[in-house]
């Protein structure tokens, strides 16, 4: 079965319905979009919607998984970047850009949904964690970063540092200096070499 979205035909799936819904949320605001609006845009019925999606909140619960899939599939950047530190900057800059793309409105609702019931949106994803831990260990060995703490604990600290600044960005309705504030703290925790401290500007 095909649906019409953005002027093109797409195979009906949870992902295709979600893509249409996100576009509507960005255009009109999460609270201003109904399930009926999504069904109309996707040219499907409500029963069809519910056969793929449990609720409106389900459409925004797994946003990070799409970002992580893109990061893990982007081998080009990891082959062309020698510095482990810069590879880490690339990973977090990608997450940061996607957060800003979705906007504080959608991310605030994702946070609220998880406060009502832990939906796992902010849990660390094993595939990204494993890759980042390997990169951190390489950066420590090569002297890119001076913090020699356990790479697993170090990555966990960075991941939840990101979540903390993201939460404040949502509270401030997208008006805080998310990128600058996060990467300054990121550099402080990792204890990076002086010549690396401004590398993040290449990615944001």
Provide keyphrases for this structure:
204 residues, two-stranded antiparallel ribbon, mainly alpha, Arc Repressor Mutant, subunit A
What can you see in these coordinates?
With 204 residues, this protein is mainly α. The chain folds into 2 domains: 2-54, Homeodomain-like (Arc Repressor Mutant, subunit A); 60-202. It has helices spanning 14-28, 35-42, 46-52, 63-73, 75-80, 84-116, 126-142, 151-171, 178-190; strands at residues 2-5, 8-11. Strands 1-2 form a two-stranded antiparallel ribbon. A hairpin with a 2-residue loop joins strand 1 and strand 2. The longest helix is centred in the middle third of the chain and has 33 residues, at 84-116. It is elongated, with a radius of gyration of 19 Å. The N and C termini lie far apart (39 Å).
Structural class assignment: mainly alpha
- Please report which band the strand proportion falls in: under 5%, 5-15%, 15-25%, 25-35%, 35-45% or over 45%: under 5%
- How many individual β-strands? 2
Q: Can you count the helices?
A: 9
Helix content: 55-70%
Question: What is the alpha-carbon Rg in Å?
Answer: 19 Å
SSE topology string: EEHHHHHHHHH
Unreliable stretches: none
Mean pLDDT: 92
Topology diagram in text:
Elements: E1 2-5, E2 8-11, H1 14-28, H2 35-42, H3 46-52, H4 63-73, H5 75-80, H6 84-116, H7 126-142, H8 151-171, H9 178-190
Antiparallel strand pairs: 1-2
Helix pairs in contact: 1-2, 4-6, 6-7, 6-8, 7-8, 8-9
Short note summarizing the structure:
The chain has nine helices and two strands; from the N terminus they run ββααααααααα.
